[in-house]
Amino acid sequence: MNTPVTSLEQIKHTVIDLAIRFGPRVLVAMLILFVGLTASRWVSRWLARGLNRIELEPPVRALLARIGWLLTFTLFMIMALQNLGVELLPLVAGVGVAGAGLALATQGVLGNLVAGLSIIFAKPFRVGEYISIAGEEGQVATITLFTTTLAHPDRSRVVIPNRKIVGEILHNFGTVRQIDIVVGVAYDTDINTAVAAIDDVLRANSRVLRDPAPVVQPVFLGDSSVSIGIRPWVGVADYRATVGEINEAVLKMFRNRGIVMPFPQREVRLVGGT
């Protein structure tokens, strides 16, 4: 009957001894971590406010603020571990081995991270620009460390892993796009009259940019018509709407001014007969 009581007394004395020996250290370590969290948040916010005054991409500012938070908290974490008497060299070695295993297990994630850093610092495109990459196109909505989000003209969003972007051929339209429309007129049409009619259509459209100036000129001599290229510049957001407006306006203008848009036709002759 005395054995359980003795065991309980031993456990009690052991707990009290550990609390006396390590309790203050644990409390101090917890206090250090609390101060570290507060200081890390303050450093992150201070960096964010300071970086807002510098011309940097939003992802770069966010990344630098997070790095500031991580470095500050790591410093306080080391101080807390030292206060507890933890040997840091074996811990660092163990973290290194665990990090190597984690890196092998998350190659795709790390690939996106490295690619994201490359995009953020190399700046092949920026938020707000219209790009075509990896078989997709759209206006760049966000750039993060792992993905790039494109706003598609049909109002959907395309999320592309950053590793699919780096190393691929990128077409960056910027913030404006050039429309490419071709219309055909009959060979007996005065080309200057047709070009003047198209110029009037472009000047009447408020979406068409004046600088750079639109390009209107014959581009191809076909079998039954002279093809005239219409290449005005518009903002990215106005691209699709302007294509339809120009096509409709050119058709109406040609009809009003008697400019013929011939149908493709072929003349077939039968030689000989029965």
Could you list some keywords that capture this structure?
single chain; about 270 residues; alpha+beta; Helix Hairpins; SH3 type barrels; Alpha-Beta Plaits; 3 domains; 5-stranded antiparallel beta sheet; 3-stranded antiparallel beta sheet; about 20% strand; rod-shaped
Written description of the protein model:
The termini are far apart. The strands form three sheets. A five-stranded antiparallel beta sheet has the order 4-3-2-1-5, covered by helices on one side. Strands 7-9-8 form a three-stranded antiparallel beta sheet, covered by helices on one side. The chain has helices at residues 2-51, 58-84, 88-105, 107-122, 191-204, 239-256, and strands at residues 130-133, 136-143, 147-151, 157-161, 171-174, 176-178, 181-185, 215-221, 226-231, 233-235. The chain is built from six helices and ten strands; from the N terminus they run ααααβββββββαβββα. With 274 residues, it is of the alpha+beta class. It has three domains: 2-86, Helix Hairpins, CATH 1.10.287; 124-174, SH3 type barrels (Roll); 176-256, Alpha-Beta Plaits (2-Layer Sandwich), CATH 3.30.70. α1 packs antiparallel against α2 (58-84) and α5 crosses α6. The model has no long low-confidence stretch (mean pLDDT 80).
Topology:
Elements: H1 2-51, H2 58-84, H3 88-105, H4 107-122, E1 130-133, E2 136-143, E3 147-151, E4 157-161, E5 171-174, E6 176-178, E7 181-185, H5 191-204, E8 215-221, E9 226-231, E10 233-235, H6 239-256
Antiparallel strand pairs: 1-2, 1-5, 2-3, 3-4, 6-10, 7-9, 8-9
Helix pairs in contact: 1-2, 5-6
